[in-house]
Each structure stands twice: as C-alpha cells, then as structure tokens.
Design goal:
Protein name: Putative metallo-hydrolase YqgX
CATH superfamily: Ribonuclease Z/Hydroxyacylglutathione hydrolase-like
Helix content: 10-25%
GO molecular function: hydrolase activity; metal ion binding
Number of strands: 14
Domain Metallo-beta-lactamase: 12-192
Shape: globular
Cofactor: Zn(2+)
CATH architecture: 4-Layer Sandwich
CATH topology: Metallo-beta-lactamase, Chain A
Number of domains: 1
Order of helices and strands: EEEHEHEHHEEEEEEEHEEHH
Largest sheet: 6 strands, mixed
Number of helices: 7
Strand content: 25-35%
Structural class: alpha/beta
Keywords: Hydrolase, Metal-binding, Zinc
Radius of gyration: 16 Å
Strand order of the largest sheet: 1-2-3-4-5-6
Length: 213
C-alpha cells in the first residue's frame, strides 16, 4: 500500500492518492488541476474506487466533478457540510475568488457517526475533527499509519478559523481529543505543506503546546 502527495490548484492544496498493489486507489481531496490528477492516475494505471473529502472548501474540491465523472465513483463528505459543495459562499470560492466562484454536484454519501469506511482492500477510521470548518474530517489509515488531516493540523501550525463556521477552541479540542490520541509515530498528511507526525507536533507545535495554558 502506497500514497502519493500531489499539490494541486491555486493554493497548492495537497491531494492524496492511496493505492494498492492491484492498482486500486482512493482519492483524498481532489484539489484542482484536474489534468494533472488524471494524468497521474492514467500514467500509473490506477483505478480509483472512491473520493474522500476532508471538508468542502473550494481549494480541496477543484477537480472533484472531473475526477468523479471520469471514473464514475462516489464522493464522501461530512453531513454538516452537505450543502457546501453547491454554495459558493460556504465553500469559500465566492469570498476568496468571487470572479471565479464555483459549485460542484453534491456528495453521494454523507458521514454521520464516526466509524470505519471500507472499499475493497482499503479501510479507514474517520474522525470528526471540526474547527477549521464544522464538517472537517480526518481519515486514519492504520495500514500505512497515516492520518489525512485536511486543514486541521499542519507541520508547526493548525488550520485557520476565520472562515465560515470556523472556531479556534473547537479546532484545538479536536486536535487534542482526536488526533493526539493516535499513535505518536502516526504520519500526518496535511492539506498544505509537508507531512509531519503526531510526536513532532506534540513536542514542538506552539498552538498545541499552548492549548489550555
């Protein structure tokens, strides 16, 4: 089992493609630059089976409809952002780039109660980690010991909370109550920038160390 980080779109948001030896794949946050994403999938002869969204901000969904239609695969999103894909104000494109505001088709499946997601040989534990947005989700893949955290936790930082539905106290609580409970050697595959690990962030991330002080 392997995963590839693909910085895509105007904000170089990290899209991740997790794939197995049989060339089946799961796409996490198809951020943009649809041609680059499809080229990677085609050149590696991968067969996506699902798209997982960590949340519905515009910079994480730019290639969503192109990818889902190219492979006829379902999209998963937290129920608290069920209408964000169709609302430029909520997904942020209307605020951040009003001249190019956009929408996508709604998700096929809405996540409700925390638990497992399984697609063939892929199994994820999904964690509700709100704060950056109300429906932010982190996907822990035990086999590769990786948590795909979206914009919840970064290397040396945390997600912004000044966008629609954001809240810093909620975000920090999510990190402490959900992500820091994972094994300390868990790799954190962030929505922007380099990947990190839980132990490093516990020891050196100033936002985490200052929480509750």
């Amino acid at each position: 089992m392997n995963w590839k980080q693909l910085p895509l779109g105007p904000l170089q948001t990290n899209c991740y493609v997790l794939y197995d030896n049989d060339k089946n794949a799961v796409i996490i946050d198809p951020a943009g630059d649809a041609d680059k994403l499809l080229t990677f999938l085609q050149e590696n002869e991968l067969h996506p089976v699902a798209i997982l969204l960590t949340h519905a901000h515009f910079d994480h969904i730019g290639a969503l409809d192109t990818a889902r239609e190219a492979y006829n695969i379902p999209v998963y999103l937290h129920e608290q952002e069920s209408d964000w894909l169709e609302d430029p104000q909520k997904n942020g494109s209307g605020r951040m780039m009003p001249e190019a505001a956009f929408t996508t088709k709604p998700a096929d499946h809405l996540l409700q109660s925390e638990g497992r997601l399984q697609f063939g040989g892929f199994e994820f534990q999904w964690l509700h980690t709100p704060g950056h947005s109300p429906g932010s989700v982190s996907y822990w893949h035990k086999e590769t010991n990786t948590v795909f955290s979206g914009d919840v936790l970064f290397s040396g930082g945390v997600g912004r909370t000044d966008l629609y539905g954001g809240d810093m106290d909620t975000l920090l609580a999510s990190i402490h109550e959900q992500l820091l409970d994972l094994p300390e050697n868990t790799v954190v595959a962030c929505g922007h920038g380099p990947f990190t690990d839980i132990e490093t962030e516990m020891n050196s991330n100033p936002f985490i160390n200052g929480f509750g002080a």
